Amino acid sequence: MQYTIPHSIKSWLRQCLVELPFNLKIDFWGQFLMEKEPGNSESLLLNVHHPGVLRKLLLSGDVFFLVDAYLQKLIDLEGDIERVLPIMQGLQLGANWGWRSPKLWLDAWTLPPLPHSPSHRSSWQRLPFHSRDRDRAAVQAHYDMGNTFYKLWLDPQMLYSCAYFAQPQMNLQEAQAAKLDRICRKLKLSRGEFLLDIGCGWGALMRWAALRYGVKAHGITLSAEQLAYNQHCIKQANLDDKITVELRDYRDLPSVPTFDKIVSVGMVEHVGAENYPAYFQRILGALKPGGLFLNHGIASRDRWQHKSIGEQFIDRYIFPDGRLAPLRELLGAAETAGWEIVDIEAWRPHYAKTLRCWADNFMAAFDSIQALIGERRSRLWWLYLLGCALSFEQNEMGIYQTLLRPARDREWNLPLTRDYWLC
Length: 423
Hints:
alpha/beta, seven-stranded mixed sheet, elongated, four-stranded mixed sheet, Nonspecific Lipid-transfer Protein, Chain A, Rossmann fold
């Protein structure tokens, strides 16, 4: 069947192509071809299989429908898919330009609708934002994809957080080990202490601290897959008397001083700036006098408002309900809650390098990964890793280790320099 594209929509598409930062060729169901630079052999080819894609895009004003369309096999891409990273920004500009034209909107109605258009939203996303049930579901949507999936591209210890490249020649495994030891030294862990790991992941930090520093550790997570993995590792290493793990929300931490030291690595991104006060107050209530808390987390230049291209892509397809805020908001909330800031260390270049390592591992294991989650979803994950690496390289995001002690502890109980944790 022949489908004619109205002139107004063709004009809108040409404007979109002009605003793109690279060469793109679009084939509309094998009947009409449009190119930014005709004859350019390096063009990325976008195949649109149904005119309903244009209709849906224009009527919804949602540029991310193109990602949904890719997952539903309504569109295809040919060429270097890494070049898709800047495509969304250009198409967003084009969509905004076109939305101001009433004729464009009316002409979109003349195109045939798609046969189906399933919602990308899950039932839990209708729950109140940052409610306990929704937070648990959001964490499980990301981390419970299966331990096998993450094993294919993380380091052998299954660390899904920024590594520390103490030496430029370090590989990922060595840099992750350096990160673990640096955290333990910053916390001044010693034999017999009780360590709490909030958002403990697959448990590498707890095992490292128990085996090398002689502490007892307790981890909390909202991921059922991570809990099962931890329980297996604890039993295999005969650490039942040293490490325990449970499914628990940070808001349900004990309100009496229980732990000598507390650590949170890559978990604060799930909290949201509006909940920073409760986060810091809960942790302070669970820490014994003279204790230390190390918070390791990503910060953004501006608070995420779910408006930018990167935020929306990550929230919808990879890491739902993650929220970032500037470091100043996190530090302000910590001080207001009763913490003294001891030290802040910026790790931005380390995370850029970590993400590049993950992306390389991911592509090396691509055949096995796509067998688990599908080829198209695998490519979105790979683009996510590359896009995050670019964000850290371009200083759009940062990551900080912040060491804190209770402000109520008047007596200084730390060395006067950082020498005790430097490599």
